Amino acid sequence: MKNQEKGNLRFIPHSRPTLGAEEVDAVAAVIQSGHIAEGEVVARFEKIFAAKMGVPQAVAVSSGTAALHLALLSMGIGPGHDVILPSYVCAALLHAVQYVGARPVPVEIDPQTYNMDADDVVKRMTSRTAAIIVPHMFGLAADLDRLSDLDVPIIEDCAQAAGGSYHQKPLGTLGDVAIFSFYATKMLATGEGGMVASKSPEIIARIRDLKTYDGKPADTVRYNYKMTDLQAAMGEVQLGRLNEFIRQRRKIARQYRESFKSSNLRLPVESDEHIYYRFVVGLEAGCDGFIRKFAQKAIGCARPVFLPIHRHLKLGGYPVTDNVWETSLSIPIYPSLDNSEIEKVIAGVLSIC
Fold it and tell me: What predicted TM-score, i.e. pTM, was given to this entire model?
C-alpha cells in the first residue's frame, strides 16, 4: 500500500523505499532457483556495485553497521585507539567503534553542511587517534580535502551518499575504506544489507575472511555478516535505478528550494553534487512541536538524527551540535513521492513553519 491511512487523510511517511515489478521479479527468480543464501547473485552484485562506484573490489555484508565493524577490524583498530566521528550522526557509528574496543571521540559539525567540522577534528586529535569516520551527511560530501591533509586513516561512511561525488570523484573512492548501507530507506534499498569497498587488496581479503566463520578454524573470532541472494537480487535492480533516483531527489529538492526561498527556514547547502538523501530545514525554534503539527496534517517529518553521540555518552561541550539537533527538521524527499504529495508537503511547510 503506497500510503498509510491516518484518519480520513492519506498519510505521507517521512521515508519509504521505491520498489516495483522489477524487484519483485528479481526476488522471485532467486526463490525459484532454490538458492536463497549467499551465492552467485551476491558475487555478481559485488562486482557491478564496485564498477558503479569506481572501486576495484567490494564485499557485500548484512548491514551498514556490520560493514563499519569489519572496516575497523580490517584496519587493526581496537583497544588503546581513538576513533573520531561527528556527534551529529546515527548511533550505529558509536556501536561499531565500541564493538572493537576503541574509544569514540565525537566532534562538532558545520551548522550549514551538517558534516563534521575539520577544525574541531584537529582540536580533538591525539597520539591515540587511529582513524576518522567521515559520513557524508544527508547526501552532501564532507570536506575531504582538509580531512585528508590530517594524515589519519579515513573511513568514508557513504550510508546516505551512494552515487554521490566530491569534486567530480565518486564518494567511496577517496578514503582508505568506504562503507555503504542498503537499509529499507537508504539511497538504494535491499531491506537490510551493506557493502565495504577499498582499493587495498589486504583490507578486502581481511573483510572476506571475517564476514563468515563456516568451514574455518576457530583460531580467530569471525562473524555471520553475510548478505543473501534475495537481498542482492533487489540490490542489482536498485543499483540500475540509482541515477534515476538521484535525478528525482534533486528535482524535488529544486521544487522545495523554490517554494521555501522567501521563508525564514534555513535551507540545505546548494551544491550540484548534493544528492538529497534527506532535505533538512533549520527552524527558529525546537522541532518537536512542528513534528506533531505535521502529523496532524498526515505528513511524516522527523529529527534527522535521533540523538547526538555526545548525548549518548553524556558529554558536554557541543553547543553547535546541540542547537542543530534542537532546530533541524527532515521533511519527506524520496523518488516515489508523487506530485500531489510534493504539493501537500510544500503547503504543509508553508502553513506550519
Answer: 0.96
